[in-house]
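Following up on my earlier thread - several people asked me to post the actual chain instead of describing it. Fair enough. Here it is, all 116 residues.
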Amino acid sequence: MYKVKLSNVLSRYKIIYCLVINLDNNSIKTFGNKDDLAYDGLLKTHFYDIDTIYNLNSFLEGQQLPKLFKQGEVLCIICKPKSNIIVGLLYHEKRDFIQYYKVAKEINEEIISIWN
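Reply from S.P.:
Thanks for posting it. Predicted structure:
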């Protein structure tokens, strides 16, 4: 059921690639085409394999979310709508930090609402 709502968010915000990780069963669902990203460094840094994802999960403990990482024009927004779910959203961003941080917070709220 989350897939339809998530697809709407991805379309509305022009998200190029999205990962949904369920830490309970180590499943990774992907949406979009990662080859359309200008750079894949953020993808490799945070989502390379399940061990990398568990390290990311440990890093996120106690952090204010969403977390934002940028490489060139590629922005990665990391949300955690539930304790066992991590959502990574990657897209091209050209606005300044204040503008894209506001958008990231909006996206985070929508992601949280999908899982609640």
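The radius of gyration is 13 Å. That should answer part of your original question.
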